[in-house]
Design a protein that fits this description.
Blueprint (H helix, E strand, L loop, with lengths): L31 H16 L1 E6 L4 E2 L2 E2 L6 H6 L5 E5 L8 H21 L2 E5 L22 H4 L6 H17 L10 E4 L18 H18 L5 E5 L8 H4 L11 E5 L12 H18 L2 E7 L9 H12 L6 E4 L20 H9 L3 E2 L4 E2 L7 E2 L3
Parallel strand pairs: 1-4, 1-10, 1-11, 4-5, 5-6, 6-7, 7-8, 8-9, 9-10
Antiparallel strand pairs: 2-3, 12-13
Length: 381
């Protein structure tokens, strides 16, 4: 089934000063395309929101690695506007596997750019100092943030990992030599205790030190200039002060985010008032600091609520005066019958997702034109 829907939008009017917006991006040497993306995301967030899906092009419900396919496209006729990938395969395994992973993702990122979509990158970094992978495992994992910071026993190893990321950032070039911009989101959900970099295992000072070094080393030492840097705790905050408790500073963050499953129906528990409050907190911070904001992860596993898209997600996003560039739901596993966060043909929430897709507030890849150019506008369909 391939349902094609139509939207009608007026062109987005953009007022510029000497061809550039005056927003607070942290890399003054960012590529032109990266600066344009940053500016255009800020403009989009005033009236719209982009829809994103993690691993959307790599696999989906019942399929794996099929060119041009995504579950979202199978339902709506359009890929999501924001496509999530992960740098988890860039360390902790044989070099040959790392190189293969880089090549696989390189095509994904370039293809998304060429279609007019946007790539965001999460980073499930395997613990550089112990076993246990990226999750914290008692009796196996070591609290490693203090070890990978400058002066730590594993700092040089951490630098090598960052060099691999930099090499990938240099490699994602279009046919005409342009570097593809990416939204890079390291150490997400750091206020939880499930990852080895979580709050329970890392002091505030060490977390900030590692974050600042990560950005500075990539940007200033290795010369990566096609990243937008996103800061995204989980939902364990109730005030601006709590949200900013581990904030590394205005020179090291471009985008404020939040990962929030708990308030949106996980385990049958909904607290949409709490979700609205938290969204407003960091959206207001972004407005005040002239930066970006996004709901960097959310979703309802298996989507058993047939009207979740319009009655839960959309209404929550539209209740307050928010400025969010995008909302991203988690992945659709290729083999699991229940681990999915976006609908696929025949799934119970498809009719409601079509309504979500058709709503003028939400934007998908087909709605974008020249997102990497200064004269960005929305497509008229």
């Amino acid at each position: 089934m391939n349902i094609i829907t139509n939207k009608k939008y007026a062109l987005l009017s953009v007022f510029m000063i000497t061809g550039h917006f005056l927003f607070a991006q942290i890399d003054s040497n960012a590529t032109k395309e990266t600066k344009n993306l940053y500016n255009n995301l800020k403009v989009i967030s005033k009236e719209h929101i982009l829809f994103g899906h993690q691993h959307a092009l790599e696999y989906g419900h019942g399929w794996f690695n099929e060119s041009g396919r995504s579950d979202v496209k199978s339902v709506t006729g359009s890929h999501p506007a924001v496509v999530g990938i992960d740098f988890s395969g860039f360390s902790g395994q044989a070099q040959e596997k790392i190189e293969n992973e880089k090549e696989r993702l390189k095509k994904n990122v370039i293809d998304t750019y060429e279609r007019g979509g946007i790539t965001t990158v999460s980073w499930h970094l395997n613990n550089p100092a112990s076993g246990g992978g990226f999750y914290w495992k008692d009796s196996v994992s070591i609290a490693a943030m203090s070890l990978i910071k400058e002066g730590g026993s594993h700092h040089e190893q951490y630098k090598e990992i960052l060099k691999t990321i930099a090499d990938f950032a240099y490699s994602v070039k279009t046919k005409d030599g342009k570097l593809v911009p990416m939204i890079f989101r390291p150490f997400h959900e750091f206020d939880g205790d499930w990852f080895w970099w979580g709050k329970k295992y890392t002091s505030r000072e060490d977390f900030i030190a590692v974050w600042q070094f990560t950005v500075s080393y990539l940007r200033d030492t290795l010369g990566v200039h096609n990243f937008i840097y996103a800061f995204s705790p989980d939902n364990r905050f109730n005030s601006e002060e709590e949200y900013l408790e581990r904030y590394p500073g205005d020179d090291h963050v471009d985008l404020f985010g939040m990962d929030d499953y708990g308030d949106f129906g996980r385990e049958g528990k909904y607290d949409l008032e709490a979700a609205k409050k938290k969204l407003k907190i960091f959206s207001d911070i972004a407005i005040k600091k002239n930066k970006l904001a996004a709901l960097t992860e959310t979703g309802l596993e298996s989507i058993p609520n047939a009207t979740w898209w319009t009655e839960t997600l959309l209404k929550t996003l539209q209740t307050e005066k928010l400025e969010l560039a995008y909302v991203l739901v988690w992945r659709n596993d290729a083999t699991s019958a229940t681990h999915f966060y976006a609908p696929f043909p025949g799934q119970t929430s498809v009719p409601d997702f079509i309504k979500f897709y058709e709503d003028p507030y939400t934007l998908f890849e087909k709605d974008l034109k020249n997102i990497y150019h200064s004269k960005f506008k929305l497509k008229n369909n």
